[in-house]
From TrEMBL:
Lineage: Bacteria, Bacillati, Cyanobacteriota, Cyanophyceae, Leptolyngbyales
Organism, as annotated: Stenomitos frigidus ULC18
Protein name (record): Phycocyanobilin lyase
Keywords for the protein's UniProt record, in alphabetical order: Antenna complex, Lyase, Phycobilisome
Molecular function via GO: lyase activity
Pfam families in alphabetical order: HEAT_2
Gene Ontology cellular component annotations, sorted alphabetically: phycobilisome
Superkingdom of source: Bacteria
Length: 274
């Protein structure tokens, strides 16, 4: 394996589009966390080939790349931001959830909305604490249904179908009502959507959901220890709270302080006393 410093220097010194793309591809291939800053810098270059390679590398690195990607979102370079959202969609880390919700429903670029919609379906739901899982999946479902119903671009609606299919598998045991909403949306789109490609993808999704449901119902729920901290989960919860607005995230008794109590409960669940 080439020395990492050599690979980074090759990216920094590339003097043509083709050399830059090749250099980023080589750096991305090593999959090391130390490459993250250089790969993120490549997202802002006016070089789609290098950006695609950087996204692939960041997705391979995964969780370790997320904090730097989220920091990148605060910059004013839209090109870098759009590629960053695609990287977060590919990683599926819960810390990117709110970004993907906004990207799927409000970004002006169809390619970003498409990536975000797909990413919402393959979020690492098995990492979520139970109390937060219900809230987060409800938000993802609402966003994907909105995209499927409202987006003018067929490729984005197609991605929403893919996302909804993936989400349906995780809702089988936890939210039968949500799964019913997905099935109803598919039935409507299978008749009404103007794109034959979307209609065909819906038929595939319906068949695969039906085939997979019986199997899933016989399986114990997937369990996987989350690498995120109690602070991470509290920040995710607070971000969701801000996104929806206080009036839409109150519990049935209408007391927003209940969300503070939930944050404490999540912290205790994810970081129990020794």
């Amino acid at each position: 394996m080439a020395d990492l410093s050599i690979l980074i220097r090759a990216v920094e010194e590339a003097d043509s589009a083709s050399l830059l793309t090749r250099a980023v591809q080589n750096l991305a291939a090593v999959g090391l966390e130390a490459a993250v800053p250089t790969l993120i810098a490549a997202l802002s270059y006016n070089n789609p080939g290098a950006a695609v390679a950087a996204v692939d590398g960041l997705v391979t690195i995964g969780q370790a790349a997320v904090p730097a990607l989220l920091e990148q979102l605060d910059q004013h370079n839209y090109t870098a931001r759009s590629w960053t959202i695609r990287a977060l969609a590919g990683i599926g880390d819960p810390r990117g959830l709110v970004t993907l919700l906004g990207g799927a429903t409000a970004d002006f670029s169809p390619s970003v909305r498409r990536a975000a919609a797909r990413g919402l379906g393959v979020m690492k739901w098995q990492w979520f604490p139970d109390d937060l899982l219900e809230i987060a999946q409800a938000e993802a479902l609402e966003a994907l249904l909105f995209v499927a119903q409202q987006d003018e671009e067929w490729v984005v609606r197609y991605a929403a179908v893919v996302g909804l299919q993936a989400l349906a598998a995780t809702l089988t045991a936890t939210d039968p009502d949500g799964r019913s909403q997905i099935q109803a949306q598919f039935e409507k789109m299978a008749i009404d959507d103007e794109s034959w490609a979307v209609r065909a993808r819906i038929l595939m999704a319906q068949q695969q959901i039906q085939a997979k449901t019986s199997y899933l119902l016989l399986q114990p729920p997937e369990e996987q220890a989350s690498p995120l901290s109690a602070v991470d989960w509290q920040m995710i919860l607070e971000s969701l709270y801000r996104r929806k607005g206080q009036e839409r995230l109150m519990l049935s008794e209408g007391d927003p302080r209940s969300y503070q109590a939930m944050a404490v409960a999540i912290a205790q669940e994810t970081n129990p006393p020794h």
